[in-house]
């Protein structure tokens, strides 16, 4: 139970500590899969039932890049944790699937290695390493995410993700590489509330010279790492940045990511979120202020069954519908 909740409890019993640290998670997962006889990798086409389609219309109007992206995601989810698949690790052709994709598709393909090799740190590091030194930023960013996914929920004395990705976060200049490193860190350390990570990531949120996209992803990373903690320093770093933004800048779509990062800090904490909700009202742009307040409130009361909050949400939905009707007339 402690392992499932990613609890930082340390035991003097080495075997017990190994369980709490999830160090044998991959081994036990694969053992169960062998017992259930489900180790055989599945190709995405078998999931799509492509052989049943009318070939004359099968690919009609489908963008090849989007199709490859769909194949990447399905392959990652259906073969997650098994350490083998038929698309990337064991290609049916000699062409590396990562290089068959383009731009964002390459990021997803490289990152999907982390899903396929979930919790298998030794094999995962070996497979991911060849993509971390590529020249293509999309691939390198994806490999950073893969590194975080492989180590998700696993506590390791060597702590390879922290050692590698914090260094990348400090030395890489390109925004997409920094975003990849931030997401990798959040995948591994979600719920850990590690002070050293807040110390490294908060300056990225607060630096006005960074792009809005980078600041937003940094806020999301802090939200994931400090999820449900109501940490004051974490919340202040996000709120301060939002309040210092120009009103026109607050219309940026990435503001929604800022709001989610802030909301995650108060996940399930109900009334403890109210002070931050009040601060949200001070954000210069009224639409962004309302959106942030709503997201924080939604996260704070998620799963609570609070009738008053449910009624409020339903009322907001009804207001939105009325606005649409007025716009039509």
Question: How would you describe the overall organization of this protein?
Answer:
With 329 residues, the protein is mostly helical. The chain has 2 domains: 1-160, no CATH class; 190-329, no CATH class. The protein is 61% helix and 0% strand. It is globular and about 55 Å long. The relative contact order is 0.06.
Summarize, please.
The protein has helices at residues 14-20, 25-35, 44-48, 64-78, 97-100, 104-116, 121-132, 137-150, 160-171, 175-189, 195-206, 212-225, 232-244, 255-264, 274-280, 286-300, 307-328. By secondary structure, it is mainly alpha-helical.
Q: What is the share of helical residues?
A: 55-70%
Number of domains: 2
Q: What is the average of the pLDDT values?
A: 86
**Largest sheet geometry:** none
As a whole number of angstroms, the C-alpha radius of gyration is 22 Å
Give the key terms.
329 residues, mainly alpha, 2 domains, 61% helix, globular
Write the layout of secondary structure elements.
Elements: H1 14-20, H2 25-35, H3 44-48, H4 64-78, H5 97-100, H6 104-116, H7 121-132, H8 137-150, H9 160-171, H10 175-189, H11 195-206, H12 212-225, H13 232-244, H14 255-264, H15 274-280, H16 286-300, H17 307-328
